[in-house]
Design a protein that fits this description.
Layout (H helix, E strand, L loop, with lengths): L14 H8 L3 H8 L7 H14 L4 H9 L4 E6 L3 H4 L3 H14 L5 E6 L3 H12 L5 E5 L7 H7 L4 E4 L11 E4 L1 H14 L5 E5 L5 H14 L10 E3 L4 H14 L5 E4 L2 H13 L9 E6 L12 E4 L2 H18 L7 E3 L2 E3 L5
Parallel strand pairs: 1-2, 1-3, 3-4, 4-5, 5-11, 6-7, 6-8, 8-9, 9-10
Antiparallel strand pairs: 10-12
Protein name: HTH-type transcriptional repressor CytR
GO molecular function: DNA-binding transcription factor activity; transcription cis-regulatory region binding
InterPro entries: HTH_LacI, LacI/GalR-like_sensor, Lambda_DNA-bd_dom_sf, Peripla_BP_I
Amino acid sequence: MAEADHGHGASRPTLEQVAAAAGVSRGTVSRVVNGSPQVSESARAAVLQAVHELGYVPNRAARSLASRKADSVAFVVSEPETRVFGEPFFASLLRGASRELSNSGLQLVLVMSWTAREHAQVEQYVHNGHVDGLMLVSVHGDDPLPARLSSGGIPVVMAGRPHVTTPEIPYVDSDNVGGARSATNYLYDQGRRRIATITGPQDMSVGVDRLAGYRSALRGRRGVPRDLYAIGDFGRESGERAMRQLLEREPALDAVFAASDLMAAGALIALRAMGRRVPEDVAVIGFDDSEVAGHTDPPLSSVRQPVEFMGREMARMLRTMIEGGDRKVAPLILPTELVLRGST
């Protein structure tokens, strides 16, 4: 099916247009939109795909939003289940949001959306009026979900600065550039001269910003290799793999800033396996100051970001938008702090 053009001036897609695009009857589309089980899986998939491509929004979503009948908000994480339940960042963010909403009368719904099919299901769930607003977490690249949801009139708040140009979607973030800069500056000030970084995915603002902070700290420094970095996915295994790659490229490296505690923990494993002592041979700093930092050997120096507070502020911002009807809420950037432990 071809992508429909719904730019400025285009009319809202109709039920009939969705039916035509999906090759089914209007009644079938209506049953899918209303959640009826009396539809074949193939027809349901075709309708959901057409809904996604056309950007169809059922009229009753607007009525539900206006009346606040749902009394719930969604916490949507664009990652696989293994990462959502395996990394402390997501649990801390969710805990903060839950605590902020505990006395608000709003229920918090956790939704995981990693594949294109899951994205379409999220859009359908939202457009059916099941939630009054959304918090979007770990958005990658040019993911159309934030813009599609925001343009549908539902309040949306993002965790982290949008990576690409999107409508003016409010967000809560940490000072990723400043935190990475402070970690790298500290390593340099301690006499380290071959400083590497294991950065996050470059299709996410957090990965881009932490790499930018590292580069900013080393800009103009004499005798320091430029852009000695490898890309990870914020997970432990990717940190171990990236550390091995960096040691192969620069066996004499003497420090590494990793853009997450889990990647730093993976780096410690690789360094030990390759006969490097920490911090005597290689100093290591992570980012997050999560529970992981206190349980590595040696304990991990890390850039502290207030993850749980970020979650609270996201929920508070979303409540303001829902209750006040204001979509133009200023973004919030929270400070970071370097916490020193045995790894440096």
